[in-house]
Design goal:
Layout (H helix, E strand, L loop, with lengths): L4 H5 L6 H12 L7 H13 L1 H13 L5 H25 L25 H13 L6 H20 L5 H22 L1
Helix pairs in contact: 3-7, 4-5, 4-7, 5-6, 5-8, 6-7, 6-8, 7-8
């Protein structure tokens, strides 16, 4: 019996979490694929903050706090991101490209990738604005953008799926708590 590709580079002491992440990464065919799909994933992974910013502006225009809501939401998301980066430094979880699972499609540095900062910020923004908008279209667009960005970050090898799932969940919880305080 030949060893699996995962076993080829993982030490026997690799955590079950990492083993699951690698299985999910491979199941999603992340880190490879047609050039057009990789180009789309790279663009989305790098530039999804622009449509998110437009959605934040759209929601805040119809709110009693107006632009103040947008500024508070973005400031909170920045604080959530800083907290996430501290957690990442503490946990030191390797990124897929750093483990040799795929090329470094985004030219990312080697710093730790758990939790995903992009997912934290997207989740925090979505959570913070959730109590402040009645627009199902705006919420659906933000959720689609957050999920799409998460997919793109995984597909380009910047993160494992669980990095993104954890980042979205933590960001959403932190954002929702903040959004409810503002309500």
């Amino acid at each position: 019996m030949t060893p699996s590709p995962t076993a080829a580079f993982l030490p026997a002491s690799a955590s079950p979490w990492l083993r699951l992440d690698i299985r999910l990464f491979r199941l999603l065919h992340a880190g490879r694929g047609p050039a057009a799909l990789m180009g789309f994933a790279r663009a989305l992974a790098r530039w999804s903050w622009l449509p998110l910013l437009a959605l934040v502006a759209w929601v805040s225009l119809d709110h009693r706090l107006g632009p103040v809501l947008a500024l508070l939401c973005l400031a909170w998301a920045g604080l959530v991101q800083l907290a996430g980066k501290r957690l990442a430094r503490r946990w030191q979880a390797q990124r897929p490209f750093a483990l040799g699972l795929c090329p470094n499609h985004l030219g990312h540095g080697g710093r730790a990738g758990f939790p995903s900062s992009h997912a934290l910020v997207m989740g925090a923004v979505l959570g913070a604005l959730l109590p402040h908008t009645a627009s199902g279209a705006a919420l659906a667009a933000m959720a689609a953008l957050a999920l799409g960005t998460g997919w793109a970050r995984v597909h380009t090898g910047a993160h494992f799926p669980l990095d993104v799932i954890a980042g979205l969940a933590m960001g959403l919880a932190a954002g929702l708590g903040f959004g409810l305080l503002l309500a």
